[in-house]
Amino acid sequence: MSDLDQLTQSLARNLKRWRGERGFTLDALAARAGVSRGMIIQIEQARTNPSVGTTVKLADALGVSITTLLDHEQGAQVRLVPESRAVRMWSTEAGSSTTLLVGAEARGPLELWTCRLMAGEGTTSDPHPEGTVELLHVTEGELTLVVDGRTHPVPAGTSATFEAHVPHGYRNEGAEPAVFTMVVAIPPVR
Question: Phi and psi of 36, rounded to 5°?
């Protein structure tokens, strides 16, 4: 199956799922998103690849991220996204592009971090509040992500997301520095 076919199937499945979870009829979602009922039917039947704009409208109307609509592996506490699975949203012949590396559903404060771990070093974190999500992207070396006692190797070019309400940490078990960018999404105080 090609990347485009996989993306089409994932979008069809996830759109139908989220529309059902929200209790929206085809007409209700069409009205909320400003997208025709016929287009939604075609997307849910995997008969078309909508524009980025249409996909964003549908995600906004459902109250989810575009990543959630395009994701083909929902449900794991820790999700690694190898570079080959990142979604290129658009590109030009001159070389400009945008690539969606990883995403998660989160509301509330966001923190953006850049991290560098030298060989043999690491750091740990106490559990964050329930609902906290971390997303990271490794740009150099290989990071060992430890979540709730389980290790996950994350090589350069790979992205990951995980629920951070459990003990977690980051280690560099390699010989070269590990460099990564991280976002921490904290739920709002209720």
Answer: -65, 150
For 28-59, write each residue's pLDDT tens digit.
Answer: 999 999 999 999 999 999 999 898 889 989 98
DSSP helix/strand/coil, 64: coil
Tokens (6 digits) for 132: 């906290």
Pairing of strands 122-125, 78-81: unpaired
60 and 33 in contact (C-beta within 8 Å)?
Answer: yes
Contact present, 109 and 116 (Cβ < 8 Å) = no
Q: Does residue 107 contact residue 94 with C-beta atoms inside 8 Å?
A: no
Residues 6+ apart with CB under 8 A from 44: 12, 15, 16, 19
Q: Residue 99: which H helix or E strand, with range?
A: strand 97-100
Sequence-distant (≥ 6) Cβ neighbours of residue 114 within 8 angstroms: 179, 180, 181, 182
CA separation, residue 123 to residues 72, 89, 116, 169, 183 (Å) = 31, 34, 11, 6, 16
User: Rounded to two decimals, what is the model's pTM?
Assistant: 0.54
Helix (H) or strand (E) holding 69: helix 66-70
Q: Give the three-class secondary structure for 20.
A: helix
Helix/strand/coil for 5: helix
